[in-house]
């Protein structure tokens, strides 16, 4: 154990901190156990306790100790700190800290700062209509719940990026340290730049046990733990013990020393003797060196200060202290007596005055205002967020001549790449930081987003070589081959007030799917808390999609993230499938400018045919789902024989090719062509804010005609979305059906029976009439499919007329005087050259 500093504590300061800690521990135990007699002003009886004892005691004393000492550091250094709690089960400890600092009563006025407030605080914890047991979105000062372990350090990193004055204290539990994401998160020193970023101080809390057994690092000796952290780029120090009067001074010394070393690193990197901020404009470029940042390994007993032995069995310092050390109160009066002795041992009569308020000498230990970790704006990022610039989209438009639709090939994501480039340029600050970042697992160029490298590089603090491409310490494109890190960094970045996008291969977004689910849950509850300011939306760009990973094979082919997100909170989730570059551009800019949503944008990076000019794209995106009159074979006033719908870039091409076959083979068949960009429009309006009313839905899809639907993902997703619509059985969906391999692009749609020939045959089967030529067209489709099968095996590529197909149907869609209006009003088009309003897709702006 480190020798306590002779100057860390002044006279009586240790006693004050120990009393604050006792108050935090008392409030923690009370939340778990009590529903009455909150301050033990009378003997404890069974009816004072909760009928269901929920919560986790074991990690809480350690969390409260660190919090207590960080408050002293904040007051001594006048610095900004954010507290990330990896052991999220320690929820009552952080709720207690927020109440002790006064923040809890400020944001929840019904929880007073007196005896009644203490009782209300206890009664609400883990009870119906109350607050969860984790360090959840309802906890002031939190941006990390910690329910699903593994993400504490990655969220801390995201909060530190581009916040040069912030230090993030990240408590990593030894159970959490066993997870893959946390193991990868230790590589942070390779990406943390002291010139423009804040700092992360990991505190690896080794209390030795999970819920049922020991932890790996808890049983490792100090030398092994230190060696591991050193290998990852940290400079650790160990603090351990079970005597608070020894551990408190040692840990305070370690915290102050870490803060000093962090400031020295930052001042040296910034080159001007300042501690960050706009003065860094004249700082030299960063050195390409991975800095050794301080870290703390903290060993204290699990369930510290709780019952040592219960029923003759050791509890403190074991896994038995993980949750509720004293259970079965109704059946065991001895346990009730032990609970009373435990709580009275904290001396509540010396912590709270006659009115139940924290005594003045303890109230004075909290920092003031926003310096309180429970009140810091870094944990309520909407308070710091500034809107993104909204560039004029016409600067990125792919010009599409209405007379030549579907004939030019363009990479669908390249326009988005140019937009991201200019957002980087517009948001970069003088110190080299900014408010926008792109996160991608080594795939920025692969995903055709490489225009960003015209203004910034990939971030890398390690050694550089002459052969490196757009790589350097001052780069702000975050590439690391871990979906967990990319998405987690972005989540921390957004929740602390900035903007960004996570771009990855479609199939491998499933690696971090549960993170997206957890973020949706966070935003869903945040929207119910008026004190939580709106944060930028989490934007997930999926490219290298299932249909065009024909060169990689089955492992790379999977659209499952759509299905993961669709059932989640309708007030949060949006799923977009733009069919071409201009719709991808419009949707991307819209999502990047929005707040409080999780936006899934699925668009392929390869070259695709282009269909809509920017103005048309704006109208189509604003509508969400619309009829493409120019692709239909019947007029807007005619009753169609069939509806052919599509969602996604490859499905759109195949559906258009099917229409062309039908136009040529059965010219009398009346086909309405519908394109879906916003999947949520398919949901009934009572179930989603973007959902169409039944009348609007029937205006588009007709009340009773069959609908053949070419869909990007699994067909069941569409059936799920239209559940509740009149006669949903008339929808016949073709999509990805788990058929794939390394093959040709067209063979992928054939294998999954979504090719133009399969769609045309399904239309002929489902149409209201059998027009002349239908049998011949069906036979032609069968012959072409057989020809395809033979050709690709002999020539190893698609048939020439398939590979070079372009739209040759009618393209003049100029509206007539008697043409009906679009199903939804057109979007407002860009006008201001700097900040333009591009309309709205979401239900609150459509």
Automatic annotation (TrEMBL):
Q: Keyword set for this entry? A: Lyase, Thiamine pyrophosphate
Cofactor names from the entry are: thiamine diphosphate
Pfam families found in the cross-reference section: XFP, XFP_C, XFP_N
Q: Which SUPFAM superfamilies match?
A: Thiamin diphosphate-binding fold (THDP-binding)
Q: Describe the location of the Xylulose 5-phosphate/Fructose 6-phosphate phosphoketolase N-terminal domain by residue ranges.
A: 19-383
Location of region: Disordered: 269-289, 806-846
Provide the Xylulose 5-phosphate/Fructose 6-phosphate phosphoketolase C-terminal domain boundaries. Answer: 605-807
Which PANTHER family does this entry report, sorted A to Z?
Answer: PHOSPHOKETOLASE-RELATED
NCBIfam families the UniProt entry points to: PRK05261.1-4
Q: Which family does it belong to?
A: Belongs to the XFP family.
Quote the protein name from its UniProt record: Phosphoketolase family protein
The organism is Pedococcus ginsenosidimutans
